[in-house]
Design brief:
Blueprint: E1 3-13, H1 17-28, E2 34-37, H2 46-49, H3 81-94, E3 101-102, E4 107-113, E5 118-123, E6 128-136, E7 158-161, E8 175-179, H4 185-192, E9 198-202, E10 209-210, H5 219-227, H6 230-250, H7 254-271, H8 275-280, E11 293-294, H9 298-302, E12 307-310, E13 314-318, E14 321-324, E15 329-331, E16 334-337, E17 351-353, H10 360-363, E18 382-384, H11 398-417, E19 422-425, H12 427-441, E20 455-456, E21 459-460, H13 468-474, E22 483-486
Parallel strand pairs: 1-2, 1-6, 2-3, 4-17, 6-18, 7-16, 8-9, 8-16, 9-12, 10-11
Antiparallel strand pairs: 4-5, 5-6, 13-14, 14-15, 19-22, 20-21
Length: 487
């Protein structure tokens, strides 16, 4: 247990893409008085935690990397988890961030000390830190969602979530059940189907899926990327432009929906010939209403003789398997949850108290309101990265993260340059921003489904309703009129 009496200019929580981008931005502007708290023994966030077979990004490598740090060493057009983690470590090393990161320091609580104008942060290990600004870079996808099925405690087989993969269990010859069929499931199912005796996928609803067409980069490609860096920039630009087409899926553009739905159905029918399985894998909702998935391997995996898709619904667990709502028992040795993450509420279970000791949980009790998804009224010098309404469903979220790192750096620079104690967003600016976002959301495809991880009740709380370019423009400079400053 330690009490660090140094007052840092900034304290960053989390060392994934957001935290590292933030640290690099600060250093480039000459801000060196900061520290990064990381709860684990290594950096990486979601790319450290998710080690399931086949873990891979669904954004092309050239675009799923920092704009200021193109990486000529990519092995694939769509990179696997190990190399993405390698890329993050490369950025830490190159930018001299090792000494700024404190490992196994898990955030416990924080309190804004108004008189002094700084945040007091405590860790679960008993440490206390103080900083002028607190930057939460904890991401949205790090609390695995575990369904509360009856009787799961009596199941005598092995059970785990895809985000906490049990590498000690050999799946060879086992009967395996996978609950869920979204982004993680479509990646690991093709990798395990050839190992298991039999695979049952418990599916609630089919997902729209497009071909990925992943390709390998050979030594010659990597040599050219190193020799001619513009090739990576061009690849990044072209991928971003192509992803702009998917933006129209998030709205209600009938032409693009019809076009991409036809591409998706063609991809499905090319592989799946069994009429019953084809029916199970055909979505019954508009494309774009939930996350559109990419895979070349998922449909072929389900077409194998030792795989089936079960849509009977789960009633409860038994000692030796799962009982469906139809009363059928599916004998299982292993159950794997591919049920996603608890993305709401934001900053789940984190004790953050602003002015007058008001917790962020209570401040957001009626609705989660922010300004630009980064600041919230009553919490001076408090910033969020990848916060409410800043997720992209059509392109690389790193575009948003870099914009946020730039904006927050501008805020900290303004505070330092003008010797200001604090800045707090005005409630009316926050209200106006939230109302505008919610109004635009009503015109998107996301409102056309009852439930998705994008939503908190009837409110779409995760996603940004516009293009990344629009957000980049909004965050290029700090509108000082939106904040109350204290000296």
């Amino acid at each position: 247990m330690t009490t660090n009496h140094k007052v840092y200019q900034a304290l960053i929580v989390g060392s994934g893409f957001s935290g590292i981008s933030m640290a690099i931005s600060l250093k480039k502007r000459g801000i060196h008085s900061f520290v990064i708290l990381e709860k684990e023994e290594d950096i990486g966030g979601t790319w450290r935690d998710n080690t399931y077979p086949g873990a891979q990004c669904d954004v092309p490598s050239a675009l799923y990397s920092y704009s200021f740090e193109p990486f000529p060493g990519w092995k694939k057009k769509w990179s696997d988890q190990p190399q993405i983690l390698e890329y993050l470590r490369f950025n830490v090393e190159k930018n001299g961030l090792k000494d700024y990161i404190l490992y196994e320091k898990e955030f416990l609580s924080s309190l804004f000390i108004e008189k002094e104008g700084y945040w007091e942060v405590k860790t679960k290990q008993g440490d206390t830190f103080t900083a002028r600004s607190l930057i939460m870079a904890v991401g949205q996808l790090h609390h695995p969602k575990i369904p509360t099925f009856k009787g799961k405690e009596v199941f005598k087989g092995n059970i785990w979530h895809s985000a906490k993969w049990n590498h000690n269990i050999d799946l060879k010859g086992k009967h395996v059940g996978v609950i869920g069929n979204a982004a993680s499931a479509i990646q690991f199912i093709p990798k395990i189907v050839s190992q298991v005796e039999f695979l049952t996928v418990f599916q609630r609803s089919a997902k729209w899926l497009l071909p990925k067409k992943n390709t390998l980069y050979n030594d010659k490609d990597r040599h050219l990327h190193r020799k001619y860096p513009f090739m990576l920039y061009w690849s990044r630009h072209s991928n971003n432009a192509f992803n702009g087409v998917f933006y129209h899926l998030m709205g209600q553009n009938k032409f693009w929906k019809k076009f991409w739905q036809s591409v998706s159905m063609s991809h499905l029918k090319k592989t799946i010939k069994d009429p019953e399985l084809l029916k199970k894998l055909t979505p019954d909702y508009p494309m774009g209403a939930v996350r559109v998935l990419l895979s070349d391997e998922y449909y072929p995996a389900l077409a194998k003789e030792n795989a089936e898709v079960n849509m009977e619904g789960i009633s409860h667990f038994a000692e030796d398997g799962i009982i469906t709502r139809s009363g059928n028992k599916i004998l299982l040795d292993v159950v794997i949850y591919a049920t996603g993450f608890e993305s709401n509420p934001f900053l789940k279970d984190l004790d953050i108290c602003g002015l007058n000791g008001i917790s962020i949980k209570n401040a957001w009790k009626q609705s989660t309101e922010t300004y630009l998804g980064m600041t919230t009224a009553g919490f001076p010098n408090f910033f969020m990265m990848f916060g409410p309404n800043t997720n992209l469903a059509h392109s690389s979220v790193l575009l948003m993260i870099e914009s946020q790192a730039h904006y927050i750096t501008e805020c900290l620079t303004h505070l330092s340059r003008n010797r200001l104690k604090s800045m707090d967003v005005k409630p009316d600016f926050q209200k106006k921003f939230t109302l505008q976002v919610n109004k635009r959301m009503k015109k998107t495809a996301w409102v056309q489904v009852k439930e998705s991880w994008y939503k908190d009740g009837d409110v779409i709380i995760n996603n940004w309703p516009g293009k990344a370019k629009e957000y980049q423009k909004l965050t290029k400079t700090v509108d000082e009129s939106a904040y109350t400053f204290c000296q």
